[in-house]
Every structure is written in C-alpha cells, then in structure tokens.
Amino acid sequence: MCLLLATKFADALTTGVGLAYAPAVYEANPIARPVFEGLGITDGLLFGSFAVVVAIVAVTEIGALAVARWRRDGHLAPVVRAVGYGLPSLLFAAVAVRNAAVLVEAVEPLGPL
C-alpha cells in the first residue's frame, strides 16, 4: 500500500505542477477533467487522489478477504493484494514518468549560458 500511495502522490504532484505552470499541459483523463474544472487543481487533485486510493484499497481488501474465506488456508490473499496494489502502482508510476517528461519538454531554454 505504501508503493500505491507513493506512486499516486508522484502522479498527482506532476499533474498539478503541469496544470498550474505549463500552459500547453491539459488533463487528458475525461473523468478527472471536470473535477479539476469544478474544484480547482489542488482541491480536485486531493479529492480525486483520495477517492481513487480509497476505491483501490476497498476493492483489493474485499477481494483478499473473499479469497481468504474461499480458501481457508488464505495463501492466495497476498497474491490478490500484490495484484490489487501492484498494477495501479505501475500505472501511476508510468503516468508520473510521462508527466515529468512532458514537464521537461515544456520548460523553455534560458538561452546560451
């Protein structure tokens, strides 16, 4: 779960910096865009990130509990958690890296040093 929080934070941070400081950057997620327009960048990111993390944790933990009840030895519950937290973490990390690359491209050179 720590990896999930760290990668979601990186995603939100790079998204927020891009939306606030790079005029050419826009929110590509059609679900998040109206949230940002309605609440603003900071509040929209806080609300959206919190909601996404809570949903992922709820689905993952409910799935792990269901598997543990189905299989009394419970040895598959860690697999459910690894997939439930790991896949979104990979996605958030990829988005953060892409956002960072877009930010680097958006920086205008200062000229010759």
Notes on the structure:
The structure is a single chain. The chain is an all-alpha fold and 113 residues long. The chain has one domain. Helix content is 78%, strand content 0%. The protein has helices at residues 2-21, 32-39, 41-70, 77-106. The longest helix has 30 residues, at 41-70. It starts with a helix and ends in a 7-residue tail after the last helix.
Give keywords.
113 residues; mainly alpha; 78% helix
- Rg is 18 Å
Q: Which residues form runs of ≥5 with pLDDT under 50?
A: none
Shape summary:
elongated
Distance between the termini: 44 Å
User: Based on DSSP secondary structure assignment, what is the total number of beta strands?
Assistant: 0
Count of domain modules? 1
What percentage of amino acids are in beta strands? under 5%
Number of helices: 4
Which secondary-structure class do the elements indicate? mainly alpha
